[in-house]
Design brief:
The complex is a heterodimer of chains A (about 230) and B (about 180). Chain A has about 230 residues and is an alpha+beta fold. Chain A has six helices and eight strands; from the N terminus they run H-H-H-H-H-E-E-E-E-E-E-H-E-E. In chain A, a hairpin with a 4-residue loop joins strand 2 and strand 3. In chain A, helix 1 crosses helix 3. By secondary structure, chain B is mainly alpha-helical. Chain B has two domains: about 100 residues, Rna Polymerase Sigma Factor, Chain: A (Orthogonal Bundle), CATH 1.10.1740; about 60 residues, Orthogonal Bundle (Arc Repressor Mutant, subunit A), CATH 1.10.10.10. Chain B contains eleven helices and no strands. In chain B, helix 1 packs across helix 2. The chains are: A alpha+beta (about 230), B mainly alpha (about 180). At the A-B interface, helix 1, helix 3 and helix 4 of A face helix 2, helix 3, helix 5, helix 7 and helix 8 of B.
Chain lengths: ~230, ~180
Amino acid sequence: MTDQENPDNENAMAAEYVLRLLDVEEHAAFEVRLRDDPALRAEVTEWEAHFAKIAQDVQPVTPPSHVKASVFAALNPTTSSRKSTWKWFAGLGTFAAAVAVAVLFIGPVLRSTESLTPSFQSELVAADGSLVVTAGVIPATHEIVLKQLVGGAAPGRVLELWLIAQGASAPVSLGLLEAEGTTRIRVPDEIAPGVRTGTIAISDEPAGGSPTGAPTGAILATGTFVDL
Amino acid sequence: MTTPADIEAMIAQVSLRDSNAFSALYDATSAKLFGVCLRVLNNRGEAEEVLQEVYIRIWHKADTYAVTGHSPMTWLITLARNLAIDRLRKRKLPTKPIEDVFDLADDRPGPEAEAMASSDRTQIKACLEELDPKHADAVKRVYLGGETYKELADSQNVPLNTMRTWLRRSLLKLRECLTR
């Protein structure tokens, strides 16, 4: 009898998953099963609720006021004072409200697994729905596989993918998207650790990509990385 | 006193991009979530960074709250705890056992925690008490200290597989008790 068939194992594994006791491969495999198994998801929800009560004994500690200021600055860049390299980010503020949350499971990109197929999915959607791009991550190779489902670059223009790592002073170009269809972009090893907590953005650029190393055109879609 | 219904209403407003509600939600819940981050990470600077990440996540994910089926504090605590564990796991530095930093015996709930607690808390407490004390302690250390099977096995001086078998058995006993 396999783990999947034994309800006891199933339940224990759901608890281990919630506690983060599974190893990398088990954790990823469990997440794949969670997607198609509502009963298993219910089990996970139940364990989360039980274990969260353990934290009710934790003493509240008032955080320093600069944390709140940082949160609001991060969510509303137009009201924060930032270096000029961040000016382009101002436009993002208006997008932030309408941009769909990208669900890019890029954390495991930092771990090694043998699988060469995408294990994690994401979706970047422009505020007006004119651009829809999904992203899948291949953890073993640090690759992001982008698929343009709706829209694309304007004639004579290209789409460029950027990473704004948390606390970084400027966005970093990850590369250009193909004119249509699928693009594979390998994230350099030194950048990969910042991807999980950063923001990715797609901008409209002249042919050949931004000539300045910073986004020069409109930011069309962005996503923050969210674990489900 | 902020009730769970108040917090739920704030989350609903946040999902509509109401920054005043977001500010109120932060004021009502950040001390609790900061406590959780501090407890897991045992490092103020990191806990502050993770707390910031938690609220940015809340802003973006508020619209998914309703479908989780969680009570508002459970949702918030789970989010904070998981992000703190992520940060802990990324860190390669060895950590001190949590007992060296926090006096667990003196960890009685404060007034706020008490107000948020429900009769459910006594249920998980009672059920943990039914376990072998070593295993109940292990469950708490894993949840709030982010310990791994390897660390638990090393601290209890048993092979990793033995540790896993013991803890899994305890988790099933816990489940049986909680659904009783």
